[in-house]
Each structure stands twice: as structure tokens, then as C-alpha cells.
Amino acid sequence: MDCAYVHLQRALTVSWETPPPALVAALARVRSEGRGASVLEVEKRRGCPRTIRGDAVASQRSVVGAHRRDLACEGARAPARAARLLAAAARVEAAVAAGRAPTWPRLCATQRAVLGVDDDEALLRRGPAGCGDRRYGYWPRLHERLAAKLAADARGSLHPVLQATRLYLDLIHLHPFIDGNARAARLGLTWWLALAGLPLPPLDPLIRLPKPPGHPPWTFAHLLALGVARCLAPTGPNGSARSR
Fold first, then answer.
1. Nearest to 182 by CA among 132, 117, 127, 126
2. In this structure, are residues 189 and 167 in contact, taking their beta carbons and an 8 Å threshold?
3. How far apart are CA 235 and CA 237, in angstroms?
4. CA dist 204 → 66, 101, 241 (Å)
5. Which residues contact 215 (CB under 8 A, 6 or more apart)?
6. Which residues form the domain of 126?
7. Does residue 25 register a pLDDT over 60?
8. Residue 95 falls within a domain, yes or no?
9. Which of 103, 114, 211, 238 is the Cys-Cys partner for 88 at CB 3.0 to 4.6 Å?
10. Residue range 174-199, pLDDT digits in tens
11. What are the φ and ψ backbone dihedral angles of 28, each rounded to 5 degrees?
12. What's the whole-model pTM score?
């Protein structure tokens, strides 16, 4: 099955303006409380101890398991890769601070930092690809079509959780880059949430959630909305979220 084609055909027919009632209720719990913590601060706070000096990353110890792939939590296993990812996260921070949405050119610039490449020939996928049991087809003007879609998406007025969901799934299933599509998707998700002043919830449940291409995106969006809402909930004396 061609995951890219199936996803794109489905993505063009989903009615994002009318999500299911359960998701609408979850989105109602998500409220912006001013500019959220920076991407790097969120990652430091979330159990990824390291010293950050510019783009250099010195990991004090690795707390990353094989099941938990999170933004920039790879310092001990792959310092150079982690440093590039943190540099890319810094680009996202700068874009958020300037109020810039994640358009295709900006995503490409960020992904060049992720991969450490300078030109599109080393960045963009130009043929069919595979990852595990998934296959990603390629057709002429794939990137141009994706760029047009992302530009239209950014002009919309959807809830930021839905914007983040849409971009994440587009990058995961269309696989536009030669490498690092999962990292690009996580950065894109972070970008939309931070732009709205929302916190970044734990990503592992989202990463592990089955996301078959062509299926409605509501399960992912619902899980993301609940994660953000938990981060925003008042906490009790023991640090746990209080029930409303």
C-alpha cells in the first residue's frame, strides 16, 4: 500500500471544521495561557538532563529508552545528531518568537539543520521509500503539492491542536524528506503548540499510537488535546493534576 497517496487522498477530504463531539469537548479544555515554555526548556524539564552551550550538547546521562523517542533526548547515544536536533529546535523557537507559522520553506530550513545538509538534493525524497513494513510512493510535484497544502492550512483558523495534528500526520505519512521525517513531524507539532502558547505534552503516547494512513485523524487529535489539557490543569500539593 502506498501510504503517501492514501494519506493525501484522505487528508483532502477530511472535514476539519466539524470534528467529533468528544474531540470538541477535549479541545474546549485546552486554553492558551500566554507564551508557552520554549522548546528547549520543555525538553530540559522533561527528564533529558544535559548542558546546553550554543549548539553543543553534553549529555550528563542518558535517560532515553528505545520506546521513548522525544525531541533532543539522544545526547548520549548520538551527540552529533542530538546537537543538530537542538539547533533545529532553536530555529523553531526563533520562528515562534517572531510569530511565524510552519510553512514549507521554513520546515525545509529546519530540516536542513536536523540533517546537517545544505541543499535540497540531500534533503528531499525523489523516489519511492520504505520504513519497516510501510511503503511511501513518489509522484511528480509531491513537494509542490504538499507546500500548497501547508500554505492553505496555515491560513486557516483551526484550533492549534488540530493544526499540530494535521502537520504531524502529513509529515509522517507523506515522508517528504530523505531522512528524519519523524523528527520533522515532532518539531512541526511542537511549532504549532508553542505558537499558540500551549505546552508540549509527553510525546511517547502519541508516537506509539497506531496511525494507519487513510484513517480519520481524530484519535490522534483527541489524545494530543487531552495531553495538553493535563499540562494546563492546576496541580495539587503533591504535583499531580487536580480534577475539575
1. 132
2. yes
3. 7
4. 11, 24, 19
5. 10
6. 3-40+101-232
7. yes
8. no
9. 114
10. 999 999 999 999 889 988 988 888 88
11. -65, -20
12. 0.81
pLDDT, mean over the chain: 79
Sign of CA dihedral 104, 106, 109, 110: negative
Residue whose C-alpha cell is 545526547: 75
DSSP for 155-181 reads HS---HHHHHHHHHHHHHHH--BSS-H
Whether 67 maps to a domain, the answer reads no
Grid cell locating 153: 492550512
Nearest to 107 by CA among 121, 122, 124, 131: 124
DSSP string, 92-140: HHHHHHTT----HHHHHHHHHHHHT--SGGGTB--S-EEETTEEE---T
**Distance between CA 15 and CA 18 in Å, rounded?**
6
Residue 36 near residue 193 (C-beta atoms within 8 A): yes
State the chain's maximal CA–CA distance in angstroms.
Answer: 57
- Give residue 26's region: left, alpha or beta (phi > 0; psi -120 to 50): alpha
Domains identified in the chain, total number: 1
SS3 category, 58: strand
**C-beta neighbour count of 14 within 10 angstroms:** 14
CA pseudo-torsion sign 102, 106, 108, 114 = negative
Cα–Cα distances in angstroms (integers) from residue 142 to residues 62, 121, 211, 215, in the given order = 38, 15, 21, 21
C-alpha–C-alpha distance, residues 193 and 157, integer Å: 14
Whichever domain contains 182, its CATH number is 1.10.3290
Looking at the domain assignment, is residue 212 inside a domain? yes
Amino acid at 168: Y
- How, if at all, do strands 134-136 and 129-131 pair? antiparallel
138 lies in some domain: yes
